[in-house]
Every structure is written in structure tokens, then in C-alpha cells.
Amino acid sequence: MRALVPLRVPAGWLVEYNTFVEFGPDRPPTVDDYRWHHTQDLLQIRSCKVVDGVWQVDPDGFLVDLGWYPDGEPTGAYRLVVVRPDFRGDTVIEVSHREQSVICRAIETCIAGITNGAAVSAIAEEVRDVVSR
């Protein structure tokens, strides 16, 4: 069994599902790994807020979604999408990359920027920089 990729997710976020597992040079993906762990539904995280002392999904917040496209294909890539407030709303950030470590940094950059109240345009630019290095 593979371990989940460690992500720094601060308070104020709800991890709805997470099947984003670690791969590395010492243990590269197998054919079965592509079938089971390189799918369109790897990770989904929603921003939350406190209402009357209780954490709730923020209806005007953000949804961070990670998938592998095309689904199960070894030649594919991770695609990170940030939408507001959900998939019926606007896509505010969208990047793709094959390297797991790069996508991990991009996810953490998005979440940290949103948590800290940065402008979406500034977050998007920083994420593009992370992916292009």
C-alpha cells in the first residue's frame, strides 16, 4: 500500500477525498498503479469558514481539485484546477505537470495564498512560476 502524499493543509479547509499517493525514483508507478492511482479524481479540498462557532463549507469559497489526465494513461499528467465556488463557477487557476513534487508545491501554494487572502491573480502567477521551474 502506498502512502498519501504529505500536504500542508491549514485550518479552514475540508479534504473531501484524497487518493493522491506517493511515487518516487525508488518506487515508480506500475501498470496497476496507473489504473488505480492515476485517475481524474485524486484530491478535492474546499475552503471553509466559521459560522456561529461552527466550521462550514464556504458557499462563496474555493474548490481545489486534482486529477490525472487522461485517466490511467502513463503518458498523462496531473491537472490542478481551482474553481470558485465550485465547478459551476469560474476556473481561477489551472495548471498541469507530470512531476508529483511540483504539483504538491502548486497545491500548497494555492491553499496558502487563498488562506492568507492573497489576490487570485497573484496566486495564479505564483503557481505558474512553481510549475515552470
Automatic annotation (TrEMBL):
Q: Which domain of life is it from?
A: Bacteria
Name assigned to this protein: Uncharacterized protein
What is the scientific name of the source organism? Phytohabitans rumicis
